[in-house]
Structures are given as C-alpha cells and as structure tokens.
Amino acid sequence: MDQNYNGYQHPTNQQGFETQQFQTNQQQFTSQQAVPNQQYASQSQMNIQQCSSYQQAAPMQPMINMAKVKPSDLGKDFTPIGAWGYFGYGILFSIPLVGFILLLVFSLGGTNNVNLRNFARSYFCALVLLIIIYVILAALGLSAYSVFSN
C-alpha cells in the first residue's frame, strides 16, 4: 500500500508513525499488567462484595405451584353445583314466602359457596324483571280495559 491511489496515501504508511505508536502502547500496556495497581484491585474486590451483598439482600421469591392450591385455601368455597342442585334450588326458591326469604339470604351472602350465591342473585334478578314485566302488562291491561269499556 505504499502507492498513492488518486493522490491519497493511507495514514498508516506515513513514515511508520502508527506502527511505532502501536508498539509503544503495547509496551506500556504490558508493563501495566506486570505490576497491577492496588487501587484497582481493592476496588474490584469491593465491587464483588457489593454484588454478593445485593444477591443476599434480595432472595428469590418462592414460586407457587397452582396445581397444589386448593379452593379451600382461598377462603371461599368454589364447589360447583350439579344440575340436580340447580333444579332443587330453583324449586326451593319458588316456594311463595319461605323461598323468597331463602333467596334473599343466599343472594346477600348467607353462604360461602360462590356458585350458590351467584345463582341466587341471578334468580333474584329474574324475579325482579318478571315483577316489572307483570306491572307493565297490568298497567297496559287496565288502560286497554278503560279504553274499550266505554
């Protein structure tokens, strides 16, 4: 690469300047490696101690295996209700006075079973909607009777 290419000469070939600088840098580097600086050594030991103290200060959290968690451990009962259970509770809630009282008790939290409580709430909502529809139909029936009776 001693030849000029369009008037440009590579700087590494100018009087061997870069090669000489590399050799002096290499000699300085090897002389520094031969006699390590005590300040850097003590600082690196301090960094290692700090890293180990950070590891000791923040232990890993234990992983929870969700397959071993039982529904009873959660404080609420998530036992499913079978088809006959829904049928039986539907008959129980349809009893005129006792059924309505039990419906209110179960829907307002008288049981720990979440599924039974939700079923009682849905039955109560359906009962309220039916009462509203009956009231609307009764009002329409009375107004229709008054219109056609004249």
SSE topology sketch:
Blueprint: H1 17-34, H2 38-57, H3 83-93, H4 98-107, H5 114-149
Report the C-alpha radius of gyration, rounded.
43 Å
The major β-sheet equals: none
Helix-residue proportion? 55-70%
Portion in strands: under 5%
Helix tally?
Answer: 5
The succession of helices and strands, N to C, reads HHHHH
Which structural category do the helix and sheet elements fall into?
A: mainly alpha
Annotation, overall tally of beta strands: 0
N-C termini distance: 120 Å
- List the uncertain runs: none
Summed over residues and divided by their number, the pLDDT gives a mean of 75
Shape: elongated
Give a written overview of the molecule.
The N and C termini lie far apart (120 Å). The chain has 150 residues and is mainly alpha-helical. Helix 4 packs across helix 5. The mean pLDDT is 75. It is elongated. The protein contains five helices and no strands. The longest helix is centred in the C-terminal third of the chain and has 36 residues, at 114-149. Helix content is 63%, strand content 0%.
Q: What are the main properties of this structure?
A:
single chain, 63% helix, elongated, 150 residues, mainly alpha
Quick rundown:
It is built from five helices and no strands. It has helices spanning 17-34, 38-57, 83-93, 98-107, 114-149.
